[in-house]
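Input (structure):
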């Protein structure tokens, strides 16, 4: 008999809204203790749920680990590799998307089948990028979003790229990711990269041919530290290994294993305008809370719902603490991903964050006492 264990994952606790909406959304993971090939598992998940599970950040990964049951130590997830796909470059930090127009490769780079990116320390060109084997051992740069005094750290230990990524995620936030971070004055002037004791310095840029079953663009990878990052076009599928801390490994897709599906809860639009605090109370009482957006994939999901609103904005769970002069998510998530309309950002008191329901779906600050509609999820 099929054993299914479900866990409610608070991936998005939306509440959007004028005329701003609120949107309270829950994800639900389902561990299916029935052995199927990856394709059979995909078909099962699509018929009975939404799809095989996609993992977008490390907090979701940690929640996923808790869903295992019984004697099974492995389960399929929604990541798969193809044999006829071109490699794509990704940033290690979830929510930071690689933009071809913002690349900063040195002349002649990338120049091969090497899958990880480095900068080097030869004078004025040390912040140009190059590609290198992920299995080389080099110094590396970490980024810490929770340390306002020192966001970037040059690590003098030599590790391969996957080991470096694991180190940064455990002790900081992630490997340094994105052109904005790499061009930050603290990196260029605050760190003396010329003191590195390896010729090259790993950054959080990598390329692969792995894709998610549901088409999600999540760049999160959580491979076993022994994984060969140059293994591309393998035609294999990924599974999470519970007794290895949930880390992933690649496997022949025809093997039969348990698997994990996910559901997207149904979101309903409630056309009863409320102030931001009223909306927050309603969602916390009847659902989970106002929407939190920490990565670009979550932004896309929220704006898909927001576009059907009859008002120009929707509420989010983003609030401004006037005395501390800081924006924060009421779910206690860090404001790492940002999508502000800079023209309307003034950091005034008595403000909370809202999203445009049209156009580029930028965030704006909005007066707390304005009464706006909101979205909720069915139980």
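Output (sequence):
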């Amino acid at each position: 008999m099929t054993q299914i264990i479900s866990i409610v994952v608070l991936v998005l606790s939306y509440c959007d809204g004028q005329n701003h909406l609120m949107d309270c959304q829950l994800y639900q993971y389902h561990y299916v203790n029935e052995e199927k090939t990856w394709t059979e598992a995909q078909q099962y998940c699509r018929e009975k749920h939404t799809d095989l599970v996609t993992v977008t950040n490390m907090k979701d990964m940690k929640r996923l680990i808790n869903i295992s049951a019984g004697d099974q130590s492995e389960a399929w997830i929604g990541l798969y590799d193809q044999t006829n796909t071109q490699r794509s470059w990704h940033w290690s930090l979830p929510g930071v998307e690689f933009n071809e127009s913002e690349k900063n490769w040195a002349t002649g780079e990338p120049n091969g089948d090497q899958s990880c990116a480095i900068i080097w320390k030869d004078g004025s060109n040390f912040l140009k990028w190059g590609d290198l084997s992920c299995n080389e051992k080099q110094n590396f740069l970490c980024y810490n979003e929770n340390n306002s005094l020192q966001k970037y750290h040059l690590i003098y230990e030599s590790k391969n790229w996957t080991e470096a990524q694991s180190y940064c995620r455990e002790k900081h936030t992630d490997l340094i990711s994105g052109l904005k971070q790499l061009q930050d004055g603290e990196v260029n002037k605050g760190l003396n990269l010329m003191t590195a004791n390896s010729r090259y310095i790993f950054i959080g840029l990598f390329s692969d041919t792995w894709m998610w079953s549901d088409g999600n663009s999540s760049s999160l990878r959580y491979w076993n530290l022994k994984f060969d990052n140059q293994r591309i076009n393998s035609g294999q599928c990924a599974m999470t290994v519970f007794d290895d801390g949930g880390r992933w490994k690649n496997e022949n897709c025809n093997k039969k294993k348990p698997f994990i599906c996910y559901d997207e809860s149904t979101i309903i639009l409630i056309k009863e305008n409320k102030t931001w605090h009223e909306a927050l109370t309603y969602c916390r009482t009847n659902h989970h809370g106002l929407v939190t957006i920490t990565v670009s994939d979550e932004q896309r999901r929220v704006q898909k719902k927001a576009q059907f609103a009859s008002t120009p904005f929707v509420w989010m769970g983003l609030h401004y603490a006037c005395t501390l002069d800081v924006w924060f998510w009421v779910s206690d998530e860090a404001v790492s991903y940002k999508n502000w309309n800079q023209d309307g950002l003034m950091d005034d008191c008595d403000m909370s964050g809202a999203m445009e329901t049209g156009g580029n779906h930028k965030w704006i600050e909005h007066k707390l006492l304005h009464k706006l509609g909101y979205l909720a999820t069915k139980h």
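Notes: The longest strand covers residues 27-36. The mean pLDDT is 82.
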